[in-house]
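Newbie here. two chains, one complex. Structure please?
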Amino acid sequence: MYFCTDFKNTIYLFDMQRKTLIRLLSALVLLVCFASCGEKPTTTREERKEEVKEYVQHHLLDSHDFSLFSKTDASGEVHHYGFPLPVILWDGGLKVFSSSKFHHGETVAEVDGNYYKLEHAKIYKTDAAGTMTYDEDNHPTNEKPLDISITKGVFMMLLTCILMFLLFRSLAKSYAKNGGIAKGTGRFFEPIILYIRDDIARPNIGEKDYKRFMPYLLTVFFFIWFLNIFGLTPLGVNVTGNIAVTTALAVIVFFITTFSGKKDYWKHIFDPLGDGMPWFGKIFIYIILVPIEILGMFIKPFALLIRLYANMTAGHVVLGSLIGLIFIFQNWVGGTLSFGLAFAISLIEVLVALLQAYIFTMLAALYFGFAVEEHDHGHDHETEVAH
Amino acid sequence: MEKLIQEFSLGLFFWQAVLFIGLLFLLRKFAWKPILNAVNEREEGIRNALASAEEAKKEMQNLQADNEKLIKEARAEREAMLKDAREIKAQMIEDAKGDAKAEADKMISQAQAAIEAERKSAIADIKSQVASLSLEIAEKVVKHELSDKDKQLGLVEEMLSKATLN
């Protein structure tokens, strides 16, 4: 008898918990159902596919205004929510105006008697009517003014810079305040800084030179990591997946490597075989070998820029497509499946964000290590001194 | 590739380079240097603390060894002292015995000498007393003898008769 009531109580408790859960779930389902029911009749599946493709492609590009989301109302008019960013052009003089003048590419902006049109995130010079001319590959042939606008990407970079500065400045200050022990958020970042020092810089560059490169390695690691993470937020700014950004990062790596190259680095490029072979033998090999080595100087940073760009872009495309699939399917099975997949990929992308930052930093350190490495004779000399 | 070149935005490249280099120099001055210095200092501190702890441990061990040595030495010294004391004791007893014997011998000999002297003086005394006594006796005898004239004359007669005159 006792057992019975006990059992009933347990069941009852369990039921209570389950009931709340079921209620929550059903509320969610209803919400989703209403949302999807509202959209359903407007478009066909093909149209939606095209729309998603456009949207993903658009998302990958930089943009001149910071749009949080857009909505098409019943009359088919598109409303953009967000804020405009300043456009800075050099077209026979500096021209600064708000990107709201373009109305998201729908109108021609008139500044100081010049007309500009926004197409595919690029600004072209045009006439008052906004006529565009295209070549056979469907690329616009209109004149492009030099565009150094504060775009969405630049805006995000600025934000990241400010965030990083405040974050690490406060960490630096907390050391001074707490007698050499980090406090607050610094506790989280300190092990990462130490990891970059002890497991990236030291083994790859060497005890003697690693200190010089630490500021760069730390900055580039956190810069890429933070921007990657920002890319995963619903703001969805694809900064590190932009070829211009990764190119700039790689160019900096190239310059640092080239300018810190020691005698051995250049010797390795222009005289890779050393004294192991007489000069007349070397000539024939070097005709092939030296150009390859010189090419290698450029290929290394180029690989960096392509790797980061491709990984981040691929992540965004996959995630965007999977989220888009939910809207294409618009049914229970497909929607749930896509949601589950998108969720899983999001988790993987969080890892990839860190991984790509790590790989970039690691390889940069490796290249710096090649540049400052001192070969055998250097070591001999050192050991002689040591003796 | 063509798409990449198409996508390439010079403005973004420019801003990225400028912002990144700016950030690099700012952070280097205001964040990384203080952070790395603080971390280095801390590590140095830890290393020093460990080294000094090791040093202290060694010192402790040395001290302990010293203590052990001192105790051993003290024990040996005590042993030696005890041994010495025992020897001295034996020596002293020996010496005392010898001294006492000598003293006793001396006293005995002195006593013997005294006894001898005493005896001698006693004998002398006796001798003198015997002499005086003898004299007295002799006197008395003589006095007594001499009081009887006839006898004396008889005696003298007798004596004279015995002594032959040659």
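Moderator note: Confidence is low (pLDDT under 50) at residues 1-5, 36-41, 378-387 of chain A. The radius of gyration of chain A is 28 Å. Thread marked as resolved.
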